[in-house]
Amino acid sequence: MSKTTQAPKALRGVGNFIDDRFHLAKTGEKNLRKVFPNHWSFMLGEIALYSFIILLVTGVFLTLWFKPSMVEIVYDGSYERLQGVPMSEAFASTLHIDFDVRGGFLMRQIHHWAALIFVASLVVHMLRVFFTGAFRKPREINWLIGVAIFSLAMIEGLFGYSLPDDLPSGMGVRILQGVMLAIPLVGSYISMFLFGGEFPGEDIITRLYMLHVLLIPALLLGLIVAHFMILWHQKHTQYPGQGRTDKTVVGTPMFPAFAVKAGGFFFFTFAVIAGLSAFVQINPIHLFGPFTPTSITSGLQPDWYMGFMEGALRIFPNTLDFSIGPYPILVAVLVPGLGSMGLLFVALGAWPFIEQWITGDKRAHNVADRPRNAPVRTGLGVAGIICYGVLWLAGSNDILSETFSIDLYLTTYIFRVLVIAGPIAGFIVTKRICLGLQRRDRETLEHGYESGIIQQLPSGEFIEVHKESSDETTHVLENKPAITSTALEEDETDDRGVENPEARKPKGKLRRALAHWYTKDNVSFEGVAAHSGHHLHHSADGDEGAH
Amino acid sequence: MTENNNDNNTADDANERVVGTPTDTADVVSEATPEPRDDHNGPYLASETHKHPEEQQRRGEKIASLWFVIAFLSGIGFLVSYFLFPPNAAGEPAIGDPQISQYSNMLLGGTLTLAMFGIGAGMTVWARNIMPHYEVASPYDELPSKDEEKGSFSEFFMKSADESGFTKRPLMRRTLIAAMLPLGIAPIVLLRDTGPVPGDRMKETRWTDGMRMYVEGTHRYLRAEDVENDPYGMISALPALDDEGYPHGMSLTDQAKSVILLIKIPEEDWESGMNEKVSEDSEDTHLNWTHQGIVAYSKICTHVGCPAALYERTTHRILCPCHQSTFDAANAAEVVFGPAHRPLPQLPIGVDDEGYLVARGDFNEPTGPTFWEYAED
């Protein structure tokens, strides 16, 4: 930098005005200099943030016309095909937004697409954090906040989907109510209180509206702000590399480069969502018609993020249902309807603490794991994805059945098997792939990379030359973290042959067993020096030292 | 592992060398040229910041500006598209027409997309071609506080807590907690009036003895012949009621409970389940509740409440399209597949003096999703 231009007078004026009141110069500089590590996977969370902003803006626009009322009226708006049809005011006002408000159709589609992309980017962002171990100390609380955001986002989406009171959305509410009714003892009370009487009653849209535009967004906003403040305070994790340690973060400063790049990325995100909304129709409620509890169409599909629950409801058999006297325990509704979601969120929320308990690792981690270097965690993650994915596919088994001409009931049986077998197979295969990759890493470390250079030796033999990997690669490979557990360091018996009391208790035994399972399969890099392998001796320039 | 592929300079190999061939130590005979590898080692540190050459910066400026101009024009296009189609004009293409609405949506959305994309692309070109690229290192904050800081905090906190007397004055502490309790419960109590308690209301519908039926969506009374002649062998029906203020004749809440499927089943197809009692304290069998081969079941699935609207005539199966619970219409709507807990409730039917189908009472069980108290007396 040769010379820095003087700040313009107006800017200095504003700056001084603020600083006189808040003393921000030092903090401001520190934050403008905040370092953001560069990696594409750090942009996933940004997509979620940007689509949330788009949701807020378009949502406010929609509230200007939407009437959250279930009063039955006869439609007389501009959309001819439904004129004279009795419907709720909610549905009629949604038609009004579509056909009487310019840009209303677009805003509604942007709102819906942004919601789908919001949840999708949350999920992918969460998977990134999971697979790289970025949830580890000191970031467990931010992980929990993330899980809360994920669960609220799903509920928020479901309620929003319900508001227009069209046929599929009303059916979604009906299924929700059916699941609620299955709750032992209090189910019918919960349903009565939520709906203000029996289904559908005349209150539910008004109440869901309040939850959708006020309560849940406020909670989401609060949690997202907290998520960011924690991230800002603790700084990003980073992928391993030279100069990147648990003590030092390397990346682009906030100002100017990151700010401009992130700003541009916001516009890209908006462009993609706007493009989808312009050219890919979503939720055409005018084609579905108003909700009646007595009609339905086949091939109904919820928004994607509810698909796993829908699938679980479809494939869970009623054979495990039982009754206590006249009172039914509806396992076939409770397990898929509430259990699936509960399991998802509890498992996600608990994992950082379970892993910490197994490994006994209390250190702070700022350098992310490469997924292959934590084979059991990666395997579990893939098993979870497969389980979720199978349930999700099962949520459209009728469409699969029709598209591929498979017997409908057969698809159910197939999914019942897959939902158990798939995750197990996925775990085993993933773990093996991870170990294979570790082995290849060790090879690369020892022998360098395959250069693609073919040499013919005087003997007539052709060989491929291995070359030394770059310092960066070598650094990453050499610093592979060893997977250990403190549980295995304690001996089962002390030197006098007395059993360790901790290890004898069931909890201690379980921990040792889990620790063994978590750490046993791992390719050790111990004693492997970089480029010590003999392949290198053939490289044209690497003839350093013989055996 | 392929240890020995290109590993022939060990002592053993040397010994096995074929006579007449060159020794291994000789120079390489020929070698392919490698693709050049372009990789940068590690971070681009601020110290190695190199500004992009002026030429590149100037080109970047031009490209970025081009994108911004495109975005500007698209923004204008968006505003023009807004006024292109009036909302509700007679005789003009208005957005009330679904086709025009579609065009309007594409124009507005397309221009908006281009405007956003233009800005995003311009900013990206700006960041990549004009701004210097470098990375800086910065320390992570040491998160746990130093021991003396912790100690000082803890000392101050406990000293102040003691000062407050909160720990030392149990009477005050406990009464304060007690004072909070009722207020904590109040918000829950205040929610009491969000809805009535279930009572028996979920177990009763609008069907009564002698009530005629409307074909769903019409105000036409149903006759037995209508069911017999129906091409699908199945008709949805509602109680023939006309509540004021409900264009359908009754509220959605009543419809949700009362809607039935009327199905005609040939005499010889009835199965044994039909001869069982409709409920424990009833004399009637399921068959007694039919009329000339016509049976009436609740249309609402007992799983989670979707309308079980699909009927396959040849197998007498009623299928709910939501979660595929399947009921056998010829066998008292027994569950033959899927997650539903219990059969669809049956409605007793007959005909009145004028030959119209009527109900002969209410269902044998509560309709709709199965709930805790459904079988309670």
UniProtKB/TrEMBL annotation, chain A:
Q: Where is the composition biased (Basic and acidic residues)?
A: 469-478, 495-505
The record's keywords, sorted A to Z, are:
Membrane, Transmembrane, Transmembrane helix
Catalytic reaction equation(s): a quinol + 2 Fe(III)-[cytochrome c](out) = a quinone + 2 Fe(II)-[cytochrome c](out) + 2 H(+)(out)
> Where do transmembrane segments lie in this chain?
47-66, 110-131, 143-163, 175-196, 208-234, 254-280, 287-307, 327-354, 374-393, 413-430
Q: Does the keyword Transmembrane helix apply?
A: yes
Cofactor(s), names only, from the UniProt record: heme
Name the PANTHER family for this protein. Answer: CYTOCHROME B
Under what name is this protein listed?
Answer: Cytochrome bc1 complex cytochrome b subunit
**Lineage of the species this protein comes from:** Bacteria, Bacillati, Actinomycetota, Actinomycetes, Streptosporangiales
From TrEMBL, chain B:
Question: Which PROSITE patterns does the UniProt entry name for this protein?
Answer: RIESKE
Residue ranges annotated as transmembrane are: 66-85, 105-127, 175-192
Its record classes its membrane topology as:
Multi-pass membrane protein
Family annotation (Pfam families): QcrA_N, Rieske
The Basic and acidic residues compositionally biased stretches are: 48-57
Where does this protein reside within or beyond the cell? Cell membrane
Annotated spans, Disordered = 1-57
Q: What is this protein called?
A: Cytochrome bc1 complex Rieske iron-sulfur subunit
- Annotated organism of origin: Nocardiopsis terrae
